[in-house]
Amino acid sequence: MPVLQVRRSCRASWACAALAFALLPCLSNAQTGPSQLTSNTVIGGNVKQHANAVLAIMTYTTVPDVTTSNLSVNNGATGNPGFGQTQFGGGFTISKSFPLYLEGTLAYSRYDPIFIATDGSQQRAVPTKWNTFSGTVGVGWDFRITDELAFRPILNGTIGRVSSDLKVGQTLFNHVTDRNLQFLENGSLDAYGYGGSLMLDYEHYRENYEIDAELRATDIYLRSFGGSSEAVQGSAMAQQVSLWTRWRAPTGWHALDRPVRYVLEAAYSHYFGDSAGVLGFNDLTSLGVGLELDSSKYPIIITRTRAMVRYVFGHNVHGVSFGFAMSF
User: Fold this and answer.
1) H/E segment holding residue 171
2) pLDDT one-digit tens code per residue, 227-238
3) What element of type H or E holds 116?
4) Which neighbouring-strand residues pair with 287?
5) Which domains are delineated in the chain?
6) Tens digit of pLDDT for each residue in 74-107?
7) Quick check: 279 and 292 in contact, CB under 8 A?
8) For the CA atoms of the chain, what is the radius of gyration?
């Protein structure tokens, strides 16, 4: 059974940032089937198709999400990491009197497809390394339905780049003229995205416990532009519905002159459009438990620090991760 590794960036009504370290390796058998062998070709080497797949995978980094912020999937045939991504980000509302909502994420992903090249007389495996960097910003406004419930429309914009680094096998490509292959040798692909999200944000805070919940629907369109190879162009649609909940309550312990809280989390994400099935699943569920330190009594920018352990599962995938988050 494949194993999945996941980490989520922190989410709260205040500015948040999170960093996490994945604990378990991940497995996935998602190798593209080889095409028919002919002279001067790449077996299974539809580079444009693979590049479009990278663009579709980039859709997972466009929204702060507990289920996919840190993701690692191994190739089931080789046991080596075939794809991995890490995201850093968060969001906050400035204040109830000025309910402007701002969010942002920075993400890095790595995709290592393997192509088989031939010049008609010999064949050779050609491992490549594709690195993806992307950033997403969001600007929204809170419309208060009640004192504890807000409706939040958000405008999102994304910019990203995919770069290819061909490590070995260049000599076999010297006789290949297909322009699709130009992308493999130190090529690049730029992408931009635009769209929006609709969110319901519920905050129920009491002295003995705190409840947070967010229901979010996101639709962001990604399209490539520029790049070193005109043949490698494409587009993808990021469509996602997610529900995230958190319960916090005092443990009875004290530190930094404040109660130490235990934290319980549950989240569910369902993917539509080009995000659906690109990594072998359409939805993921996350269950987390952790502890939170409150440093708000002291004159420092960090008000709360959380350590979380999460179990994530979906169709034929599961995994465990450790998360570390801060609120400001």
Assistant:
1) helix 170-173
2) 656 656 778 888
3) strand 114-118
4) 266, 311
5) 47-176+187-327 (2.40.160.40)
6) 555 544 456 677 888 888 999 989 999 999 988 8
7) no
8) 22
